[in-house]
Amino acid sequence: MTATDHDPAVPPASRTIRTFHPRRGRMSDRQTDALSRLWPAYGLDVPDGPVVPVDLADLFGRRAPVVLEIGSGMGDSTAAMAAADPDRDYLAVEVHTPGIANLLHLVERGALRNVRVAQGDALSLVSGLPEGVLDAVHVFFPDPWPKSRHHKRRIIQPAHVALLRSRLRSGGMLHCATDWAEYAEAMRETLDADPELVDAYGGFAPRPAHRPLTKFERRAITAGRPVVDLLYRRP
């Protein structure tokens, strides 16, 4: 695929609707230092506009199974999973600059060679990947966009799921988690409707041991919002 090709899995209209709020926020001195020093080695800019092809073997400097983390937040979960799973590479995509900087700090502190961090629209990044190249896609606690008029911005919807699934290898896993009950049901309905995904658990799954319990999730549980996981495999 060239930078000017259009991925048929994604209708043109869906590319103009953001599934995220662009966010910067204030950064600590530690985060500012990590971003300035480590971005050239571990960072990947996702440009607006035409899709740009991404060579994962070139990005990581090796050929290994790749997990795509969409919305890595402050990076704690991504860093923990990558540290426990050194035989796979983790590509985290985030738009929150302090979160990106914090993940870079964690990468350096943990001497993690299997993490890269992309800044920009995850769907644009995915469109630049070859089909069948990902071992797993993680979408943990995406913005629920609770108002009905904003549901079109949700990342888990048919066209986006079709794109994500097309980049999974045979046997690859799409793993979603949310603490928003209505969105959980909508996710399940959308994922069940995809003709090339199979529910690995026959419904909501227990939290897998490989997904770390984050501060965000603890707050959700304390507030009485049950957290659910959905795991779907491309057969």
Compact description:
With 235 residues, the protein is of the alpha/beta class. It is built from 8 helices and 8 strands; from the N terminus they run αβαβαβαβαβαβαβαβ.
Question: Please, could you describe this protein's structure?
Answer:
S-adenosyl-L-methionine binds at residues 69, 94, 121, 143. This is tRNA (guanine-N(7)-)-methyltransferase. It comes from Micromonospora vinacea. Its EC number is 2.1.1.33. It is an enzyme of class 2 (transferase). With 235 residues, the protein is an alpha/beta fold. The protein has a single domain, classed as Rossmann fold. 33% of the residues lie in helices and 19% in strands. The chain is built from eight helices and eight strands, in the order αβαβαβαβαβαβαβαβ. An eight-stranded mixed β-sheet has the order 1-4-3-2-5-6-8-7, with helices on both faces. Helix 1 packs across helix 4 (97-109). The radius of gyration is 17 Å and the shape is globular. Mean pLDDT is 90; it is low at 1-15.
Question: Rounded to an integer, what's the Rg over CA atoms?
Answer: 17 Å
Query: Shape from CA axes?
Result: globular
- Strands of the widest sheet, in order across it, are 1-4-3-2-5-6-8-7
What is the CATH third-level topology name?
Answer: Rossmann fold
Mean pLDDT across residues: 90
- CATH hierarchy class name: Alpha Beta
Which architecture does the CATH hierarchy give at level 2?
A: 3-Layer(aba) Sandwich
Family: Belongs to the class I-like SAM-binding methyltransferase superfamily. TrmB family.
Enzyme class: transferase
EC number: 2.1.1.33
Protein name: tRNA (guanine-N(7)-)-methyltransferase
